[in-house]
Specification:
The complex is a heterodimer of chains A (73) and B (486).
Chain A (H helix, E strand, L loop, with lengths): L1 H14 L12 H45 L1
Helix pairs in contact in A: 1-2
Chain B lengths: L16 E2 L9 E5 L4 E5 L1 H10 L3 H8 L6 E3 L13 E5 L13 H20 L2 E3 L7 E4 L2 E4 L5 E3 L9 H18 L4 H6 L6 H7 L10 H24 L19 H17 L12 H4 L4 H16 L3 E7 L5 H7 L2 E8 L2 H14 L4 E5 L27 E4 L3 H7 L4 H10 L3 E7 L4 H7 L11 H9 L2 E9 L4 E8 L1
Helix pairs in contact in B: 3-4, 3-8, 6-7, 10-11, 13-15
The chains are: A mainly alpha (73), B alpha/beta (486).
Amino acid sequence: MRLKVVFTSIALLGLMTSQSYAYIDPGTGSVVTTAIIGFFAAIAYTLRRYFYRVKDLFSSKKSSGRTDAGDKK
Amino acid sequence: MTAATPVSRSTGASPLQPDSGSFRDRNNRVYDDGNRIVRGISTEALANWNALSKEPFFRGLLESGKIIGTRLLPADEVAGDAAWPAYLEHERIPFLSYPYEWCFDMLKDAALLHLDLIEKAIEADWTMKDATAYNIQWLGSRPVFIDVPSFEPYVPGSPWVGYRQFCMMFLYPLMLQAYKGIGFQSFLRGDLEGIEPSIASNLLSGRSRLRKGVPTHVYLHARMQSRYSGAELNEAKSLTEESDGKLSESRKFRHSKAMVLGTIQGLQRVVRSLSSGDKRTTWGNYDTDHSYGEASFETKKAFVEKAASARSRKLVWDLGSNTGTFSRICANHADYVVSVDGDTKAINRFYEAQKVQQQGNICPLIMNLANISPGQGWRGRERKAFDERGKPDLVLCLALIHHIVISANIPLAEFLGWLRSLDAEIVIEFVSVEDDMSKMLLRNRVNQYSDMTEAGFESMVSQSFDIVSSQSLKGTHRKLYHLAPR
């Protein structure tokens, strides 16, 4: 469910507009390119974060188990 | 004030001279008094510095040496007529270098440093104004970011504005070498802005178009740029008096942080995957394949050691350094050594070896010594000529003279005249036309080098130098000289 919310918000964010100014011209074509690349990259980025979060969950359980065992000694 | 106004300080030092390469961002300007590097900053840049210097991510980058040592100058160290609201002082870079003088792995490490900085900045709600490779310099073989005011607070929804500049100055040059085997140095020397997406797209054609990162960062980028610049051209044509100054709104796309960070991390994976494809090189194996007998090579090392250790020097140039045997000898007795060679692979190997050895005071650079880097950019001053970035105290020219005089057809007197203009001590290896290597270079050309005899060389040298010591290399037609300017 949370993932769905994330994806939907990414998609919507891509359609919204934002003002930004820089002393170098980022170039309209380049900004559109980063929007396209960024859209897919954001999905991969979000999935990676969730993957590591789940991985950490399991590994921390394991490590906490080891700590407990260590404490008992 | 005008940004170019010299600024006086209360320290009694000479006035700060504005750096001729620091003017694009009107929020700051770098000055040099020959002793310290000082940066005048605007009120906005000062507010940024006050916030940035407290950020854990920034403090971590400073402490790890990824960002140049910087401190805010106390007000009493700046004169009352100071032209800027505040000043930062930076650690001095011993010798400036530019991306067109770097080898593949130097540009790659500089690219990864920039991506690391922008990633950490975005994660901490900061961003960087630009992505120019000129904001990275070298302390030996360690890249360091020098443009602290480039950091500014991240505005939610804004894109990474440096993306195009990063592609043009880092990604495309690296791809050109990695995917096509074409050195990037002449491209970056030819255009200080880097390689345009459309040019990169044309160069990375055929099968290269399928290589990692090319379909998106090159091909798509070039297509999008062409499409929108075409639209802008049409708009420009329609700008008549009747249009009443009405311009179409620039297109803005809101970028989430996940989009920006995802793009940066994707680029990190692309850049890490690129390799120079280095194989053997003519001179790259010089350390083991040199044309000397062991005894002569040891004699040569001992001669250089003696000249280099005579006294401590601030800056040594090793011209024609190859993979750096003699640079390393000098580095033990000097503050800083700049090693230059025209062989890109030799310098790449030298750099890779330096990274492992961590002898932090040698900077290897690529340059054709018959065509050293000139002054470039705005008024020919923005990027300094190689011989205008600091005078050396000692210059090595070992196994170089025949390449200059015979291969490049630079008259011996011209070359010696240039060396004299450096006003430094010289350790030079004279190679006569009887030498096997000279004979090889002469194989297909007329011998017009009658002055390349030992007597002719000594006579010419004596006009502007004192010969401190000399040593013949047994079994060769070569002789070493330690010269002092007269």
